[in-house]
Amino acid sequence: MRLGCVRLTDQDLIKFLQKWISNEAYHNLETLSMFIMNDINAVLIRQSVEFEEYDPNEPEKRPREYVLDIPYDGLFYEKYLIRDQKFVEIKRITDGKRAFLDVGDNLFNFLVLKN
Protein backbone atom coordinates (compact mmCIF):
# COMPACT_ATOMS: atom_id res chain seq x y z
CA MET A 1 0.00 0.00 0.00
CA ARG A 2 1.26 3.44 -0.90
CA LEU A 3 -0.25 6.59 0.51
CA GLY A 4 0.74 10.13 -0.37
CA CYS A 5 -0.25 13.39 1.28
CA VAL A 6 -1.78 11.83 4.41
CA ARG A 7 -2.17 13.35 7.87
CA LEU A 8 -1.42 11.02 10.76
CA THR A 9 -0.36 11.44 14.35
CA ASP A 10 2.54 9.75 16.07
CA GLN A 11 -0.02 7.71 18.02
CA ASP A 12 -1.68 6.50 14.78
CA LEU A 13 1.65 5.11 13.61
CA ILE A 14 2.53 3.65 17.01
CA LYS A 15 -0.84 1.86 17.16
CA PHE A 16 -0.28 0.51 13.65
CA LEU A 17 3.11 -0.92 14.62
CA GLN A 18 1.84 -2.39 17.88
CA LYS A 19 -1.08 -4.10 16.12
CA TRP A 20 1.23 -5.59 13.50
CA ILE A 21 3.77 -6.76 16.10
CA SER A 22 1.06 -8.43 18.22
CA ASN A 23 -0.55 -9.92 15.07
CA GLU A 24 -3.81 -8.23 16.03
CA ALA A 25 -4.16 -6.66 12.59
CA TYR A 26 -2.50 -6.18 9.18
CA HIS A 27 -1.62 -9.89 9.00
CA ASN A 28 -1.02 -9.99 5.24
CA LEU A 29 0.37 -6.50 4.72
CA GLU A 30 3.57 -6.57 2.68
CA THR A 31 4.44 -2.91 2.23
CA LEU A 32 3.22 0.39 3.61
CA SER A 33 4.89 3.53 2.28
CA MET A 34 3.51 6.93 3.20
CA PHE A 35 4.37 10.54 2.62
CA ILE A 36 2.93 12.38 5.61
CA MET A 37 1.89 16.01 5.25
CA ASN A 38 2.43 16.90 8.92
CA ASP A 39 5.63 16.38 10.89
CA ILE A 40 5.88 13.23 12.95
CA ASN A 41 8.26 12.40 15.78
CA ALA A 42 10.44 9.64 14.32
CA VAL A 43 12.36 9.17 17.57
CA LEU A 44 9.18 8.66 19.59
CA ILE A 45 7.80 6.20 17.04
CA ARG A 46 11.01 4.16 17.04
CA GLN A 47 11.14 4.18 20.85
CA SER A 48 7.62 2.75 21.02
CA VAL A 49 8.68 -0.63 19.61
CA GLU A 50 11.48 -3.08 20.20
CA PHE A 51 13.84 -3.11 17.23
CA GLU A 52 17.25 -4.19 16.08
CA GLU A 53 19.55 -1.70 14.40
CA TYR A 54 21.60 -2.62 11.37
CA ASP A 55 25.05 -3.96 12.22
CA PRO A 56 27.47 -3.36 9.33
CA ASN A 57 29.72 -6.07 10.82
CA GLU A 58 26.96 -8.63 10.19
CA PRO A 59 25.40 -7.63 6.84
CA GLU A 60 24.31 -11.19 6.13
CA LYS A 61 21.63 -10.94 8.84
CA ARG A 62 19.38 -9.03 6.46
CA PRO A 63 18.80 -8.93 2.72
CA ARG A 64 20.63 -6.31 0.71
CA GLU A 65 17.44 -4.86 -0.75
CA TYR A 66 13.67 -5.04 -0.70
CA VAL A 67 12.05 -4.95 -4.14
CA LEU A 68 8.41 -4.00 -4.61
CA ASP A 69 6.27 -6.33 -6.69
CA ILE A 70 3.98 -3.57 -7.93
CA PRO A 71 4.39 -1.09 -10.79
CA TYR A 72 6.48 1.95 -10.01
CA ASP A 73 4.63 5.25 -10.18
CA GLY A 74 7.46 7.71 -9.61
CA LEU A 75 6.33 8.87 -6.15
CA PHE A 76 8.01 6.09 -4.21
CA TYR A 77 11.01 3.84 -4.63
CA GLU A 78 10.83 0.62 -6.57
CA LYS A 79 13.53 -0.93 -4.43
CA TYR A 80 14.83 -0.13 -0.97
CA LEU A 81 18.38 -0.79 0.19
CA ILE A 82 17.73 -2.10 3.69
CA ARG A 83 21.34 -2.74 4.70
CA ASP A 84 21.37 0.78 6.00
CA GLN A 85 21.31 2.46 9.42
CA LYS A 86 18.05 4.24 8.61
CA PHE A 87 16.18 0.91 8.54
CA VAL A 88 15.52 -0.92 11.80
CA GLU A 89 14.24 -4.47 12.01
CA ILE A 90 11.16 -5.37 14.02
CA LYS A 91 9.64 -8.79 14.60
CA ARG A 92 6.12 -10.02 15.07
CA ILE A 93 5.67 -11.71 18.44
CA THR A 94 3.51 -14.64 17.35
CA ASP A 95 5.45 -15.98 14.38
CA GLY A 96 8.75 -14.10 14.24
CA LYS A 97 7.91 -12.49 10.88
CA ARG A 98 10.40 -9.70 10.16
CA ALA A 99 9.79 -6.18 8.88
CA PHE A 100 12.01 -3.21 8.22
CA LEU A 101 11.03 0.29 9.29
CA ASP A 102 12.31 3.63 8.04
CA VAL A 103 10.60 6.58 9.66
CA GLY A 104 11.51 10.25 9.21
CA ASP A 105 9.91 13.66 9.73
CA ASN A 106 7.48 13.14 6.85
CA LEU A 107 7.87 9.56 5.74
CA PHE A 108 7.03 6.11 6.95
CA ASN A 109 8.24 2.98 5.16
CA PHE A 110 7.24 -0.40 6.55
CA LEU A 111 8.52 -3.35 4.53
CA VAL A 112 7.60 -6.91 5.55
CA LEU A 113 10.10 -9.55 4.55
CA LYS A 114 8.60 -12.23 2.34
CA ASN A 115 9.42 -15.70 3.60
Mean pLDDT across all residues, rounded?
91
* Number of alpha- plus pi-helical segments: 2
Low-confidence stretches: none
The profile of the biggest β sheet is:
5 strands, mixed
Measure the end-to-end span: 19 Å
Written as H for each helix and E for each strand, in order along the chain, the element string is EHEHEEEEE
Strand content: 25-35%
Major sheet: arrangement of strands: 1-2-7-6-5
Q: How much is the radius of gyration in Å?
A: 13 Å
What is the number of beta strands? Answer: 7
Outline type: globular
- Into which percent range does the helicity of residues fall? 10-25%
How many distinct domains?
1
Q: Which structural class matches the secondary elements?
A: alpha+beta
Organism: Caenorhabditis briggsae
Protein name: F-box associated domain-containing protein
Topology:
Elements: E1 2-6, H1 10-21, E2 31-36, H2 42-47, E3 65-67, E4 79-81, E5 88-91, E6 98-103, E7 107-112
Parallel strand pairs: 1-2
Antiparallel strand pairs: 2-7, 3-4, 5-6, 6-7
Write up what this structure looks like.
The chain has one domain (2-112). Strand 5 (88-91) and strand 6 (98-103) form a beta hairpin. It is globular, with a radius of gyration of 13 Å. The chain has helices spanning 10-21, 42-47, and strands at 2-6, 31-36, 65-67, 79-81, 88-91, 98-103, 107-112. With 115 residues, it is α+β, with helices and mostly antiparallel strands. Strands 1-2-7-6-5 form a five-stranded mixed β-sheet. The chain is built from two helices and seven strands, in the order βαβαβββββ. Helices cover 16% and strands 29% of the residues. It comes from Caenorhabditis briggsae. This is F-box associated domain-containing protein.
